[in-house]
Amino acid sequence: MKVKPFLALCSVGAAILTGNGAQAQDKTIKTGIWRGEFVISETKIPFNFEYTAQDRVQPILTLLNGTRRDDFKVQQIGPDSIFVKMNTYDAALVARVESDGKITGEYRSLVPGFRGNSLPFVAEHGKNYRFVEYGKEQPTNHNLTGKWDLKIYSKAKLPDNVALLKQEGNKLTGVVMSTVGDSRELEGVVQGDEFVLSHFSGPNPRVYRGKINEDGSITGELSSGIYNSTKFEGIPSKTVELPDPYKITYLKEGYKKLDFTLPDLDGKQVSLSDNKYKGKVVIVEIIGTWCPNCTDQTAFLSPWFKANKNRGVEAIAIGFEQKDDLAYAKYTLGTLRKKYGIEYDILFGGIADKKVASEKLPALNQMMAFPTTIIIDRKGEVRQIHTGYTGEITGEYFKNYVTKWNQDLDALIAEPVPADLSKARASRQSE
């Protein structure tokens, strides 16, 4: 199924302005905490952000989700209007300050061919709660802290999910993990027999609204994007786990190696058979700039590569973008490279579609998720494929991933360069 590149998949943050009307020049941006609300098909999704303007040349808007902080640069486009580009996500928030001090605006897709898609919002200064003002919550006798076996239904049952929740009083935080990645940090509240959680960090605002049943199970509805609403149900489970992410995507029978030839951002064709990669451990990262789990994975890989690039290791990112156009990919993937200081090669795979990705990488059984990370040994053989990415908010899952990553890469890097490749490399160096 083709990835839909509008606001549901790469949402944006809020904004701040400097004034309104004839007195705009006399007004200043209100720094501090704000509370905003998106309205999606009659569903309200609240979000919180902070505006700082110590440096008037470049004010910053920071989206807040529990412990997570995402910064976005604010551009003034008028006396009372601003434009906030969503970093690597090709979307922006355009907004203005009203006479009553509120901010009104919309999130806009910037993807060519999808411009005009928008999501309205309104925000108020000085409100630091998400759903209910602190101290005004209704009492509850429930505590949702723990691990949950979560099933989400659309027209058909979707792959199982695991929710990790933490409740302190009425405050509820957590994350939902699936085979393709995680929801990023959720924040909300429990009141009586009901709970609600939301998230907005740039892409895909979403809200989980549910009821706690007498038997301790939960049921509810997940809303994200326009007209995108699905049912869910869950039961507490200490033992529930997702499928092994190292066994979901694999090489077809008869294959040991991965092979592709794709253009880099300047149009130069790059192949795994190029001399640059021979005799080295190679990490292939299949991503898209529209994908939040992909940018989280890139935020992990980029500094790791900088610290290890002199150990006989290379990395390649293959980006599948929201428009099948190299010039557009040069812009989006170039933005990603600058944002995360990427020092490894970035190639363009085509349109953001799992079917297309599977066709470009025919050795794989199928492309299951963005991101997918493939590790290749010094002989050029695929040794590991990891589907999806779970970030820091997943706690022990993330720590275990990092531990295994470093152990596995250390072991592969320690393997000797095949004799024939070692001789060929020495010959090239002597020429």
UniProtKB/TrEMBL annotation:
User: GO MF terms on file?
Assistant: antioxidant activity; oxidoreductase activity
**Which CDD domains does UniProt cross-reference here?**
TlpA_like_family (cd02966)
* Keyword annotations from UniProtKB, A to Z: Signal
Which region is the signal sequence?
Answer: 1-24
Start and end of every Thioredoxin domain?
251-407
Q: Name one Pfam family in it.
A: AhpC-TSA
InterPro entries named among the record's database cross-references: AhpC/TSA (IPR000866), Thioredoxin-like_sf (IPR036249), Thioredoxin_domain (IPR013766), Thioredoxin_ResA/DsbE_sf (IPR050553)
Tell me the protein's name: TlpA family protein disulfide reductase
Source species: Larkinella humicola
